Amino acid sequence: MSTFPKKCVVDTNVPKTANLALDPGPIPQELTGCVLACIDAIEYVTTKGNLVLDANDEIFDEYRQQLSMSGQPGVGDRFMKWVHDHRWQLPDQDRVAITPRGSSYVEFPDHDDLANFDNSDRKFVAVANAHPEKPPIMQAVDSKWWGWKRALAEAGIAVHFLCPEYAKAKYAEKIKT
Q1: Residues 6+ away with beta carbon under 8 Å from 16
Q2: For the chain, first and last CA: distance in Å?
Q3: N or C, which end of the chain has less CB nearby within 10 Å?
Q4: Segment 6-55, tens digit of pLDDT
Q5: Helix intervals (H) in the chain
Q6: Residue 1, pLDDT score
Q7: Res. 123 pLDDT band, cuts 50 70 90
Q8: How far is CA 140 from CA 89, 96, 97, 137, 170, in A?
Q9: Domain coordinates of the chain in residue numbers?
Q10: Mean pLDDT to the nearest integer, 134-152
């Protein structure tokens, strides 16, 4: 198992990628290790209870839209059920208040290189930035984050890439086109 952060914010693509293990077709070779890393990360988070969420349930609502609340059939869906069942048992400081401001948040870092950051992903950054420990954000396959990692680091936000080789390669492909 990889080394995981003590506390973390989990991007939705981590449990979604873990759910790829259910696909009856073969997982593409370049994603096999990534799917396994996401399964390990989800199992770690649910065992340790080290998840950081927003107090307004914006992250929870995104999970709920993309994963099954029943906890079936995949590991990512089991994560959804765990979050549903345990989010109010997390320490108060791990349910962070974030303040909407237009399509962003007051807690989102003011950095020129983050001006085009996806609006739908800003909540994860705002939560990490607002938490007193600034926990890293677990990221799986969204390669755009690879392009923002330097600016995020300059703003004090770490991204824990579960699939760094994949993210780097996909990002390189995107910037070529």
Answers
A1: 66, 67, 76, 140
A2: 35
A3: C
A4: 999 999 999 999 999 887 677 777 888 999 999 999 999 999 999 999 99
A5: 13-18, 29-48, 58-66, 75-86, 122-130, 144-154, 164-176
A6: 42
A7: very high
A8: 26, 22, 25, 10, 12
A9: 9-176
A10: 96
